[in-house]
Amino acid sequence: MKDISGLFGLQYPIVQGGMIWCSGWELAAAVSNAGGLGTIGSGSMYPDVLRDQIRKCKAATDRPFAVNLPLIYPQVADHIQIILEEKVPVVITSAGNPKLYAETFKSAGCKLIHVVSSSKFAIKAQEAGCDAVVAEGFEAGGHNGREETTTLCLIPQVVDAVTIPVIAAGGIADGRSMLAAFALGAQGVQMGSRFVACIESSAHEAFKQAVIAAKEGDTHLTLKEITPVRLLNNPFADQVRLAYHNGATNDELKALLGRGRAKKGMFEGDMIDGELEIGQVSARLDNIYSAKQIIDQTMVEFKTAFQKMSL
Amino acid sequence: MKDISGLFGLQYPIVQGGMIWCSGWELAAAVSNAGGLGTIGSGSMYPDVLRDQIRKCKAATDRPFAVNLPLIYPQVADHIQIILEEKVPVVITSAGNPKLYAETFKSAGCKLIHVVSSSKFAIKAQEAGCDAVVAEGFEAGGHNGREETTTLCLIPQVVDAVTIPVIAAGGIADGRSMLAAFALGAQGVQMGSRFVACIESSAHEAFKQAVIAAKEGDTHLTLKEITPVRLLNNPFADQVRLAYHNGATNDELKALLGRGRAKKGMFEGDMIDGELEIGQVSARLDNIYSAKQIIDQTMVEFKTAFQKMSL
Known about the structure:
2 copies of one chain form a homodimer. Chain A is an alpha/beta fold. In chain A, about 45% of the residues lie in helices and about 15% in strands. Chain A has 14 helices and 11 strands. Chain A has helices at about 5-10, 25-35, 45-60, 75-85, 100-105, 120-130, 150-160, 175-185, 195, 205-215, 235-245, 250-255, 260-265, 290-310, and strands at about 15, 40, 65-70, 90-95, 110-115, 130-135, 140-145, 165-170, 190, 220, 230. In chain A, the strands form 2 sheets. In chain A, strands 1-9-8-6-5-4-3-2 form an 8-stranded parallel sheet. Chain A has a 3-stranded antiparallel sheet with strand order 7-11-10, covered by helices on one side. In chain A, helix 6 (about 120-130) packs parallel to helix 7 (about 150-160), helix 8 (about 175-185) crosses helix 14 and helix 11 (about 235-245) runs antiparallel to helix 12. The longest helix of chain A has 18 residues, at about 290-310. Chain A starts with a helix and ends with a helix.
């Protein structure tokens, strides 16, 4: 199987998405120990917290792991310094231009992956020197592209546009969806929502329960004028809908969103006023498993689905 | 390969979507003659036109073909009468409840497929006695579901919810996307946009050229308050956007849409004021081929992609 395992030193070509408030060192280490690429989501961390999380992750696993770095983060320079000092093996950048930092990471021996939502951005990431791209479709949770291209349409376009490996994200939560991604030419998958509803995730238990209770149509992409984000329906999401219905301005929407809503929802478990970022595929999740169970089950189903498909 | 070929008497498990103004008898017969299931889109036809189209299709092919029947069509009773009198082998119903007509079709020996956008509707279609469902995702062109579930998320859910065969639609235009649909458990695929940009399609040449010129982000789902529909960006689509921006009421949106815009755009080639229904996958189409070329190329690529994927 042609995949990203060799490139990043993994047992299986499965990346755990870096998710604010859900993916600390416990989840990252558990995923890496299970053979995938665990990722610390630095977007919700102050620099000193990030350093502590990286050190704990290194203590908990000898395998490669990653840090997800949103490039719009105000303290990005501090984060980069820490990532380099702590010799993090892989960085997954998102929401910005990787070209500004690619040389810094590469010369330090740090592998670099960038998250994209179009083939145009994938080409830019390749030109910047990235080792791989995560191509993430409309169905993905959290922040999302403006063009709304779904994973099924996006992956073949990105695969045809670049020569570096493509890791498919958005709508992937099990072996069948992983196999579909490989059919499209992906060489790895990234799963986010599946690892929110995971024992080692730092998501609040109430959020995990809401994720596995979600049904079809229970998420929607919103706040497109600010930064498109896919949210689980809840009273806060209803408030956003009402604001749109009443013709809210961008400033009014930003004021409604306020600060700290994502922490309130996903980390503190406020299912009423919190912002709950999750993918469409949450409708397919019914249980909370350990990271090892998720990866083992995914690989078994991946192989079974392939055998069943024999043409 | 477990697929729908045996059920509907096809050489290949490929259904051509029934598309208003684009899929007359020439396209349907060409697809059926090439080994797929050709479909006459009756939604844009008066009863006498439909009868004429069916007769011409029967004269042009000995293979099974289908008529697509939107159940909200005002003259649906007349259409059903004609379909039964002309002994059409397969009917593909959409936009309504197939239960009202299932017994009529089944007792006349007519196979019945219903188009759904959720597993809830798939279960209802199965209970109504349908032989199969087309499960169509958010990326599909034309009229679309309200829940915005993408094909990658939708297919496994529908496959798990029903025992009848599932035909995947939305985002499928070649062998790789077909293979992805089979990986998810589909037993056939329906392609719409791919057959708009087809020599035998009755779409206006200007529309075909616009379809193959489309790039990522050039379609969007709109008019959700009336009937969600995916359109190609053009000045008319810009007018709709502006109306939304100005807080248009549903009545104002309906007035803007008016009557005959789909015919004006897709059949008469008015790229300014016409309504242009097409899927996201148009961004992946670069050429106009014959129906036979499309089907042959799809099957070759389907098998090649499967071999390349060997785990």
